[in-house]
Q: What sequence folds into this?
């Protein structure tokens, strides 16, 4: 019987090491695409103003009589003050000398992706918190009452568009509003018989029909974007159901600002028709690298280095009636 086996010489058996690292899957970072934006320099805040409209005149003039002056015009002010966000990772001289992977390059990419995800999430949270809320299902009146049967339907979808139109909302892109939803919401939407029939009908007529263009489609004057970074309230509904946010966005619904030099690019590098997971290196700001020994007397033996990012970003709703957030169940 041989004494030298894979078990007795396990330390001598090596795993083949792949120098090429696997691509990290990133969500679509789309929430910043449609906001009003400004880059500040030498000022601490950004002010937006909106004058109110006058109502229709339905009373005829009386001969020889001057009508009363109209009421004072209302003025709404929205002030956005940017805040600073950042994070960093530390490395050591021994790590850089012993690790097989290009650690600085990888850490830079990871931090850059985190910065992009952070900015997108901050904007997403402002939108979902500040938009006009609605809930799927006839019996739902709040998030905690959304049950497993309260899913997106054709009627629910059209109802949100009707509400935007009733508020005189303006389209964002050409003649289109924007809809951002989670992949599970999209999957549930495509189980609605009316939607499926519409897609099949348009596809049979013209493969280039507007209803078919874009990543998941242009439908009912809406460009639909899918992102796994869409907001999900885990166990937020009735009986612990996960509740999904679906945003309907019109023009000038929200805005964001940042300081010059630290204002991030708020859109991922992927084109509009890209898949949900881009796998791209998102670097919305300059990565800050402090080399070994850069701390001077605080690092006398050149043992420590850091890599980090910092951004400035302020977000505010400018017209809550022109953004709607439909919360619904979307368990597939």
A:
């Amino acid at each position: 019987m041989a004494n030298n086996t894979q078990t007795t010489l396990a330390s001598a058996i090596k795993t083949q090491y792949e120098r090429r690292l696997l691509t990290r899957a990133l969500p679509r970072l789309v929430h910043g695409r449609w906001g009003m934006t400004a880059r500040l320099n030498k000022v601490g805040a950004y002010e937006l103003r909106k004058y109110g409209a006058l109502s229709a005149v339905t009373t005829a003039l009386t001969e020889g009589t001057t009508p009363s002056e109209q009421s004072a015009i209302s003025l709404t002010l929205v002030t956005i003050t940017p805040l600073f966000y950042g994070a960093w990772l530390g490395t050591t001289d021994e790590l850089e000398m012993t690790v097989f992977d290009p650690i600085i390059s990888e850490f830079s990419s990871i931090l850059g992706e985190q910065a992009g995800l952070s900015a997108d999430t901050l904007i997403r949270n402002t939108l979902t918190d500040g938009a006009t809320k609605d809930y799927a299902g006839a019996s739902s009146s709040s998030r905690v009452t959304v049950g497993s049967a309260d899913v997106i339907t054709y009627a629910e979808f059209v109802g949100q568009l009707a509400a935007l139109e009733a508020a005189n909302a303006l389209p964002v892109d050409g003649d289109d509003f924007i809809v951002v939803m989670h992949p599970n919401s999209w999957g549930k939407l495509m189980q609605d018989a009316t939607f499926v029939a519409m897609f099949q009908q348009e596809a049979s007529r013209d493969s280039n029909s507007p209803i078919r263009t874009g990543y998941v489609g242009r439908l009912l004057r809406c460009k639909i974007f899918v992102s796994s970074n869409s907001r999900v309230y885990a166990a937020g509904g009735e009986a612990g159901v996960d509740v999904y946010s679906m945003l309907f966005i019109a023009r000038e619904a929200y805005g964001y600002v940042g300081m010059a030099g630290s204002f991030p690019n708020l859109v991922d590098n992927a084109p509009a028709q890209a898949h949900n997971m881009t796998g791209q290196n998102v670097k919305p700001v300059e990565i800050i690298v402090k080399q070994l020994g850069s701390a001077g007397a605080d690092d006398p033996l050149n043992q420590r280095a850091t890599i980090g990012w910092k951004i400035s970003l302020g977000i505010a709703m400018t017209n809550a009636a022109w953004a709607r957030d439909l919360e619904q169940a979307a368990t597939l």
Remarks:
- The helical segments are 93-98, 103-130, 154-166, 183-189, 193-205.
- The two ends are 56 Å apart (CA to CA).
- Residues 103-130 form the longest helix (28 residues).
- The chain has a mean pLDDT of 84.
